[in-house]
Amino acid sequence: MNKKSHPLLGIHSLLMIIFIYVPILLIIVYSFNNTRLSGDWKGFTFQWYASLLKDRHVMEALMNSLTVAVVSTIASTLLGTLAALALRNLGKRWKSSMNGLMYLPVVIPDIIMGLSLLVLFNQIQVPLGKATVIIAHITFSMSYVYVVVTARLAGMGRQLEEAASDLGATRWNTFRYVTLPQISPGIISGALIAFTMSLDDFMVSFFVAGPSSTTLPIYIYGQVKRGISPEINALCTLLILVSVMLILLAQFFLNRGKGQKKHKTLPI
């Protein structure tokens, strides 16, 4: 028998949605406002988006963010996938311990991770710059890739791999033609999530970035300290749209992978 939920739960959910999304909606709306005054609507315009393209500092921050995101995504996707494949064959005891270590960057606060990496770079005398930002992003992005690929491997089973081995396939051919196609939706989803996390990261980057490695979130933070301008609203809107599109794309590949699995397991 289904029990009806209490009306207060619905009201609470609605208030939470309003609290989370109304400020984001206001940023998007005022990015098209034809005035620099935030609370005064003077008409619709695209001029603040056009001015972003002419701003040298914005373009430098954008290129830094894209460079860091692309390099860290490639590295973290490779390392996270290899870690998921390697830990798959460990014993239960060791696997639980290693899983805890791999999950650690996901659960610890960003400020702790940023501070610990800053201390590490200072101890080994590595100058802060774009390289340190990339290393930091690989550190936390790898865990997200690992989580997604591990979940995909857990749902795949070993039947097809065992069948390929019984038919004479080598370990490489089994991985190439059986395992990799099965986990590819998880790998792509993990890569998209890693790219999104890297592109949006502020806290960790703030600790390990040097003077010439300012990313977009750090640039936005520096500008907001002087006051919220329409250009900042436009820049935040673009970041929001890109992040939402990447998350939706990652979810699409995850759902596609689940659909393929269900299709393959239908009885003939």
TrEMBL record:
Principal cellular location given in the protein's record: membrane
Source organism, top-level taxon: Bacteria
PROSITE patterns the record matches: ABC_TM1
InterPro entries: Bact_Polyamine_Transport (IPR051789), MetI-like (IPR000515), MetI-like_sf (IPR035906)
Entries under Pfam families matching the protein: BPD_transp_1
Gene Ontology CC annotations of this record: plasma membrane
Keyword Cell membrane carried by entry: yes
Localization per Swiss-Prot or TrEMBL: Cell membrane
Record's bilayer topology term: Multi-pass membrane protein
Biological process according to GO: transmembrane transport
Transmembrane segments: 12-32, 66-88, 100-121, 133-154, 175-196, 202-222, 234-254
ABC transmembrane type-1 domain span: 62-250
Keyword line: Cell membrane, Membrane, Transmembrane, Transmembrane helix, Transport
Family: Belongs to the binding-protein-dependent transport system permease family. CysTW subfamily.
The name this protein goes by in its record: Spermidine/putrescine ABC transporter permease
